[in-house]
Amino acid sequence: MGQALLEVKNLKKYFPVTGGFFKKTVGYIKATDDVSFKIKEGETLGLVGESGCGKSTTGRAILRLHEPTSGEIYYKGKDVINASKNEMKELRREMQIVFQDPYSSLNPRMTVGQIISEPIVQHGFMKKGKELEDRVCQLLEKCGLARYHINRYPHQFSGGQRQRIGIARALTLNPSFIVADEPVSALDVSIQSQVLNLMMDLQEELGLSYLFISHDLSVVRHISNRVGVMYLGSLVELSSKKELFQDPKHPYTRALLSAIPVANPKTKKKQIILKGDIPSNVNPPSGCKFHTRCPYAEDICKEQVPEFRKLGDEHFVACHLAK
């Protein structure tokens, strides 16, 4: 892994909440709230957390599929947030996304060949013809599909095959960075392993960097180099995969790790059950957002927002009591 490819600083994405007869803004959903991290060349950063914690919003905001409310994003030193339309078009060649749902992310009225070739034509790399068809077939074969699939429609494929088509589409412009938004959550377990191994092989072959978003810690452990844990829109812990799984510092991370199922039925594992409901993103708790569910919370947790501080080598945590 080389230098920092992507740098995110204090990223925020708030969605307005409207109410009343005139639909005035009465509040904001703080989907992503002051998130900072870096991704190195050739690295996979896993982003985990409960549903609704802001993982997908973070990934989409980085690509400006959601316009960020505030913050800074730099890709190879280039300012993403303030990029013009033409500059953003250039950046999109190197920053791509694989969507979560392989059933709704592909146009049902287009053939596989049309779906994969569309970005190449739109960006002016090639014109329609034999050379473009060969390029599409090459991408299909690289992702584990056959040349004759080029004239088929999405409904003629299984879920795993559709996700392979989505990965092939993301590779059309030779990107360096891909946001993988829960790419295997809708697939069977046996198919999940095939798609994950495909992504890891492509990373090694093409030198890709991933932001891998998932709620499945077993999957994240398999593919990631570092792992970030999100809670209620904020990053609460960031560390190498090995250190996070062996020595988690944040109580929320410990609760998530305790919920990973064990393959051996004779092995007893103590699960940490968090009490209470997840607070609202519209009106989050004061101080540490996790203090309403934390078994170790003290008065300082209710009053002061914890600093996202460094505890060890590349290990960061937002907790007053972490040591």
Overview of the molecule:
The chain is of the alpha/beta class. It has a single domain, classed as P-loop containing nucleotide triphosphate hydrolases (Rossmann fold, 3-Layer(aba) Sandwich). The protein has 10 helices and 12 strands. It has helices at 55-62, 85-92, 112-122, 130-142, 159-170, 189-206, 217-223, 241-246, 251-258, 299-303; strands at 4-19, 24-40, 44-48, 70-75, 78-79, 95-98, 177-181, 209-213, 226-231, 234-240, 308-312, 315-318. The mean pLDDT is 92.
- CATH topology, by name, is Rossmann fold
Uncertain runs are none
Oligomeric assembly: single chain
The CATH superfamily bears the name P-loop containing nucleotide triphosphate hydrolases
Number of structurally distinct domains: 1
Sheet having the most strands? 8 strands, mixed
What is the count of helical runs?
A: 10
Structural class of the helices, strands and pairings? Answer: alpha/beta
Radius of gyration based on Cα positions: 21 Å
The side-by-side strand order for the widest beta sheet comes to 6-7-8-3-9-10-12-11
Helical residue percent band: 25-40%
Reading the helices and strands in chain order gives EEEHEEHEHHHEHEHEEHHHEE
Mean pLDDT: 92
How many E strands? 12
Organism: Paramaledivibacter caminithermalis (strain DSM 15212 / CIP 107654 / DViRD3)
Protein name: Peptide/nickel transport system ATP-binding protein
Keywords: ATP-binding, Nucleotide-binding, Transport
GO molecular function, one term: ATP hydrolysis activity
